[in-house]
What does this fold into?
Amino acid sequence: MIFELDLALLFLIVIIAIVAITTRDLLSAIMLLCAYSFLMAVVWVEMHSVDVAFTEAAVGAGATTAFLIAALSRTKRWEKK
Amino acid sequence: MPSKDTDTGTGKGGSIVVETMTRLMVPFIQLFALYVIIHGAGGPGGGFQGGVIFASSFVLYVIAFGIVKAGNRFSERANIVLFSTGVYLYAGVGLLCILFSYGAAQFLNYGYIPLTHHFEENRALGMDLVEVGIGITVMAVITSIFFNLVWKREEVGEREGED
It folds into this structure.
């Protein structure tokens, strides 16, 4: 484990999570969640847990993003104030 | 809801680059998914991950060609058959283990299935069979969830009209 890399990745993850729950554009929130999952997968690889990283990259960044975009195509893109 | 401008329906107006790249990519994604399923016993990966990757190839197909064409190619009935096949494969291997262990009730202890003469090789082969079952079920269920999310009511009517 590299401490500096972990720190930078976790810092980025926290920033992405905060932006994803505060933004009003739901499509960009979905894309931010995709980026969140991908960085989380990198963190799992950093922790030598390749199997969990594999699942995170396949389900979190792949399938869940597709599901959320398909669900978003039924509603409006912008959240109400 | 912007039903006119979102192009999730018939896939008209798709670009030739996207369609050609999808035609090229889908078999390789599926091959990689099969590799992940088979390789899962001895390394990272496994039935669940391979199934998700296999399903994501159908997601890519839907994105490029539209849900109507994809639904004609991979119908809901085939989906139902596939995901029950996977569960039956999983449970069937477990029940075979019970049968071949002669009443010792070793559910999913794959070594007892007499595929080869060695206990360890039986265990590896049984693990692969169970992984294939999990992979089939996960692939069919995730594809089914995605298709049902994308499908719109008027297109269902259109498709039933075609049949």
Residues 1-8 of chain B have pLDDT under 50 and may be disordered. Helices of chain B lie at 16-39, 47-65, 67-73, 76-100, 119-150, 153-162.
